[in-house]
């Protein structure tokens, strides 16, 4: 039976910056607009964190029952290691999705009912990433899901539930956050390329190959900088405080471009996650100063 520490590890807490950062960025735009509603920002954070934990447990369950995690390089997986039963991990996933749904329901009631549809689509996207008979994560579409749901939807949604308006700065910030979130997944899939190829998991990294995947990682980090300039042009140059993300991002890029493989890429996941967190936090600090 898995210990509480192993269940915590199975939730993959190092991925949580990808859930916190979009909320920081969306709230930054709301603060600049003068429409920040901190209770709604907190609810949006609960939704984002619960979805991230849910998708992590769902991936653990689905990859585990398929045997994809049999020879894993990265962190321990509950099902693949045999430390927890598939049914228990599936329950954990849907418990997390339930928490996200409850917080999302409150946001929908206090903002707009159509947000319920958005929430249902988000949960479905989280489950079918590696779940179902034809998981899209096995078809090279994982990065698209991350960009759309942990970038565009999460950032613009966080800004909208607070201001109830659609704003160009939120879209620019969403592109930047989404690009870095994609870079995290690209680094993860670059690390797992050998085992994914053997198990038939055709991630984007497997489809692109080693060299082009490394180039794609760097391109995504550069796109985040371009998007940040877009935010600055439509709000204030104080938004460029978020350029602090470039410090850990450059560290990750050096390792990726340097040709690291397997376990050597694990630090890249951490540095890229820190980069995304600094991007969102930098936007919040910069736009709060400018407001």
Descriptive report:
This protein is an all-alpha fold and 291 residues long. It has one domain. The chain is built from 13 helices and no strands. It has helices spanning 4-10, 17-33, 38-66, 78-81, 86-110, 115-128, 142-163, 168-191, 193-199, 204-208, 210-234, 246-257, 266-290. The longest helix has 29 residues, at 38-66. The relative contact order is 0.15.
Instruction: Note the main sheet.
Output: none
3D shape: globular
| Strand-pairing-aware structural class | mainly alpha
Provide the low-confidence segments as ranges: none
- In whole angstroms, the N-to-C terminal distance is 51 Å
What's the structural domain tally?
A: 1
Summarize the SSE layout with pairings.
Blueprint lengths: L3 H7 L6 H17 L4 H29 L11 H4 L4 H25 L4 H14 L13 H22 L4 H24 L1 H7 L4 H5 L1 H25 L11 H12 L8 H25 L1
Helix pairs in contact: 2-3, 2-7, 2-8, 2-13, 3-5, 3-6, 3-7, 5-6, 7-8, 8-11, 8-13, 11-12, 12-13
